[in-house]
UniProtKB/TrEMBL annotation:
The keyword Ligase does not apply. Keywords: Kinase, Transferase. This is GHMP kinase. One of its GO terms (molecular function) is kinase activity. NCBIfam families: GHMP_GYDIA (NF040656). The keyword Kinase applies. It comes from the Bacteria.
Amino acid sequence: MIKFNSNGKLLLTAEYVVLDGAKALAIPTKYGQNLIIKPTETPTINWCSFDEQKNIWFNGNFEINNNTLKPLQQNAVSDRIVQIFEAINKLNPTFLNIKSGYDIETHLEFPKNWGLGTSSTLINNLSKWTNINPYNLLKLTFGGSGYDIACAENSTPITYKINTESEFPLVEPVCFNPIFKEHLYFVYLNKKQNSRDGIAHYKAQNKSNLKTIILEINRITHEMLHCDNLKAFENLIDAHEHIIAKITNQIPAKDLYFNDFNGSIKSLGAWGGDFILATSVTNPESYFKSKGLTTVIPYSKMIL
């Protein structure tokens, strides 16, 4: 038996513009996903996926034949697994050239609708198993900037920047442990945001002054890393929200849903769903519960 683990992710800065070369601040989460591989003697893959409650959310069987995977059932998850293994085969053509097979289990440590990286943790785990570059596998499957893969592999906060001169990005472990972290909370918006839809929306915008915007986002990322008081951090959040709202032609979450909230609110990743970051001097749980949002996680309980 072989076991692999990858961390979940949250993107604190540079959502969207990380795709155009901005430097992002990203944080691995305590919640991740495990991959367990058990070799078998028959040329099949028997796949079983468990959620955070240890309930099976997918169960499927596949035949291995001529370096390809053939599903024995038809559904969207099976099709996606076949697509992933087609990409693996392109990157490592000998991997499926076998007469044996595998029992595969995936175990999530968070609800899959939270958006913490169900796909990226799977891609990273499979890449470790098949000995391929996870960024290349991501590119051939789900797409995106790749910051989530960097979080999957790192156990500290990181800065992340796409590197146009290499197939590997520029990833730097950083110290981000704000002294005001007891005033930071992650709030789930009760809806899953499709990152691919968010990226498509961003790419469709007319992005003038992009170089200036990237420089400003890079400055905010740098200042967040060195910020030593809550008010200054809130000012950085508000400035960041204003910039991203303008370039993506969207309305900030605070203006849309929480305009009476006494603190700052920042969207994380693609706007419109998943988690937000909220700053508050007092515990804001009752406020968000009054809005129907019951998942409010203190910073220290979310971040690795």
